[in-house]
Write a structure and sequence with these properties.
Length: about 150
């Protein structure tokens, strides 16, 4: 048996050159088949993500603008509602004062008619009493004096 002793760790021979050539071919193929499509996919995805970022920022700006617009419109509507409520309140007060005036006029008119009616009733009662007083007085005198009065 023969023992082969080799004192060199790396020897340059045809095997090393074949391995180096096959490694370079492998790198070329893997770069073409795998790395380039993967790199294109990564670049496409970065572009897509950047586009999404721009879209999100654009939408945020639009949202901010719409929010400001809505807040301004809400403030304007509140102001308009406040003015309208003041108008309604003023017209309500005016209407209430008109109703109070009308009721006072009706009360005064009714008071006058009631006073006139009461005066008429008093006069009628006074006439009725005047017609009843004379015969009553005559009866009282007759009873008190115990005699009759000529009519």
């Amino acid at each position: 048996m023969e023992i082969v002793t080799q004192s060199e760790l790396v020897s340059i021979n045809a095997t090393l050159l074949v391995q180096a050539a096959s490694f370079l071919i492998f790198l070329f193929l893997i770069e073409r088949v795998m790395f380039r499509p993967l790199w294109r996919t990564v670049q496409d995805r970065r572009g897509y993500l950047h586009q999404l970022e721009r879209d999100v920022k654009s939408k945020e700006r639009k949202l901010t603008e719409m929010t400001e617009t809505l807040e301004k419109e809400a403030a304007a509507l509140k102001e308009e509602a406040f003015r309208e409520s003041e108008k309604l309140e003023a017209s309500g007060k005016e209407e209430a004062l008109g109703m109070i005036r009308q009721l006072r006029a009706e009360m005064i008119s009714r008071q006058k008619t009631d006073v006139a009616e009461i005066q008429r009733q008093i006069e009628g009662l006074q006439q009725q009493l005047a017609g009843e007083v004379e015969p009553l007085a005559a009866r009282i005198i007759a009873k008190v004096l115990d005699r009759r009065m000529p009519p």
